[in-house]
Amino acid sequence: MSANDYNDDGWQPVTRLGRKxxxxxxxxxxxxxxxxxxxxxxxxxxxxxxxxxxxxxxINMVQRMTDSGRRVKFRCVVVVGNRDGYVGYAEGRDDxxxxxxxxxxxxxxxxxxxxPRGSGSWEDxxxxxxxxxxxxxxxxxxxxxxxxxxxxxxxxxxxxxxxxVLELAGIENAWTKSHGNTRTTVNLAKATxxxxxxxxxxxHPRSRATRExxxxxx
Length: 218
Fold this sequence. Notes:
This protein has 218 residues and is of the alpha+beta class. Helices cover 35% and strands 28% of the residues. The chain has eight helices and ten strands. The protein has helices spanning 3-8, 16-22, 29-34, 42-48, 97-110, 160-169, 185-201, 208-217, and strands spanning 53-66, 69-81, 86-94, 113-114, 117-118, 131-132, 136-140, 143-149, 156-157, 174-179. A four-stranded antiparallel β-sheet has the order 1-2-3-4. Strands 7-8-10-9 form a four-stranded mixed β-sheet. The protein has a two-stranded antiparallel sheet with strand order 5-6. Strand 2 and strand 3 form a beta hairpin. Helix 2 runs parallel beside helix 4 (42-48) and helix 6 runs parallel beside helix 7. It starts with a helix and ends with a helix.
């Protein structure tokens, strides 16, 4: 989709990153995340990663007492991803369920990260990026989730919530361990996302193919 298509839809960038994307100076999500500029417009993600999938993991009614009485809102937990290395997570609250979901999706796009995929299991020699490059751990509240690289063909040994996050990130094979109050969907999903975020922020070894290319160059 071109920048002109977004102009027709009425998107007028208000950030420096948005203008760079619309002008074509930045045309990949990788470049956007590595630009050092804050991601504050979900339309940027719509343009760089069209066709994102989203999944609502939990909808819960929350109540709060105010001076005018009891206020009821809906909290929605949403994960978005392209099933090919990019995933985002967020919670959204609103008076209506539909509005809460849309709000959560928009925030999740702003929380987009790139997951370092590869073949990190000692049992696997595949060059295809189907798992993580190394073990990672994430925590939210009392819940801790550990994601361990697995060989191709194993699948996802995970609960439904953890599986949903990993699938949208493009992780096809992994072992997982979880501790704490795992019945709390919001903390379980957030801990899984935090594990992937920790993996994206850590330095990981180059793949075998990359090392061989470097050796040839030298």
